[in-house]
Amino acid sequence: DAGVIQSPRHEVTEMGQEVTLRCKPISGHNSLFWYRQTMMRGLELLIYFNNNVPIDDSGMPEDRFSAKMPNASFSTLKIQPSEPRDSAVYFCASSLTLPRTGLYEQYFGPGTRLTVT
Amino acid sequence: QQQVKQSPQSLIVQKGGIPIINCAYENTAFDYFPWYQQFPGKGPALLIAIRPDVSEKKEGRFTISFNKSAKQFSLHIMDSQPGDSATYFCAASMEGAGGTSYGKLTFGQGTILTVHP
């Protein structure tokens, strides 16, 4: 298995531009998570999906952030318009979660390093 | 109540030493406690995990100690090696109503471990 795939690996953009980050979860996994990592705030959960449905987006910092999961093999995180304070590493993770089995292992992608100038 | 507090923020040991990283939680509904290891430029990866029905779990040189009454758990690395230098995150998760937690993890702030040769 190729693991969780994220693209691009690096993104440099100017303030005000739209940024789209992409994620392909591990085949067969039914939960997908988007995280943001910075030195100041650590690893923050932004939003997560189960069976392609958004479950909790309370971690999304502002309306400028949106996420979609149109099918089981693809998700996007969009920032529009981007700001310098959005600079961070964004991780996507997936897992196979089954009720009452206690299976919670998340597999992380390599991350997208976003720099907004 | 959803927080997981991790300490120390950073830790430096000599090769062969036994670094210990501690985490504390408030929510007694948490029932799964993993540790993740992250190398620079990579996503976090599951290292070892424990459930509250046991007080200790070992996998190779890594041991989790769990104290349910104190609501604390810790990671010990025996015979530490320079290759163990990484950031370590503790986390916690819980089964939601009807088994609907979807595998959401609450992460600690991370500990940067440096093992000198």
What is the strand tally of chain B? Answer: 11
Q: What does the radius of gyration of chain B come to?
A: 14 Å
Q: Distance between the terminal alpha carbons of chain B, to the nearest Å?
A: 40 Å
Q: Helix segment count of chain A?
A: 0
State Rg of chain A.
Answer: 14 Å
**Sheet/helix structural class of chain B:** mainly beta
Mean pLDDT of chain B: 91
Largest sheet data of chain B? 6 strands, mixed
Keywords:
heterodimer; A: mainly beta; seven-stranded mixed beta sheet; globular; B: 117 residues; five-stranded antiparallel beta sheet; 50% strand
Give the SSE map.
The complex is a heterodimer of chains A (117) and B (117).
Chain A: E1 5-7, E2 10-13, E3 19-24, E4 31-38, E5 42-50, E6 53-56, E7 65-71, E8 74-79, E9 88-95, E10 107-108, E11 112-116
Parallel strand pairs in A: 2-11
Antiparallel strand pairs in A: 1-3, 3-8, 4-5, 4-9, 5-6, 7-8, 9-10, 9-11
Chain B: E1 4-7, E2 10-14, E3 20-25, E4 33-38, E5 45-50, E6 56-59, E7 62-67, E8 72-77, E9 86-92, E10 106-107, E11 111-116
Parallel strand pairs in B: 2-11
Antiparallel strand pairs in B: 1-3, 3-8, 4-5, 4-9, 6-7, 7-8, 9-10, 9-11
What's this entry about, in short?
The complex is a heterodimer of chains A (117) and B (117). With 117 residues, chain A is an all-beta fold.
What do you see in this structure?
The complex is a heterodimer of chains A (117) and B (117). Chain A is mainly beta and 117 residues long. Chain A contains no helices and eleven strands. In chain A, the strands form two sheets. In chain A, strands 2, 4, 5, 6, 9, 10 and 11 form a seven-stranded mixed beta sheet that branches. Chain B is mainly beta. In chain B, strands 2, 4, 5, 9, 10 and 11 form a six-stranded mixed beta sheet that branches. In chain B, strands 1-3-8-7-6 form a five-stranded antiparallel beta sheet, with no helix packed on it. The interface between A and B is medium-sized, with 27 and 27 residues.
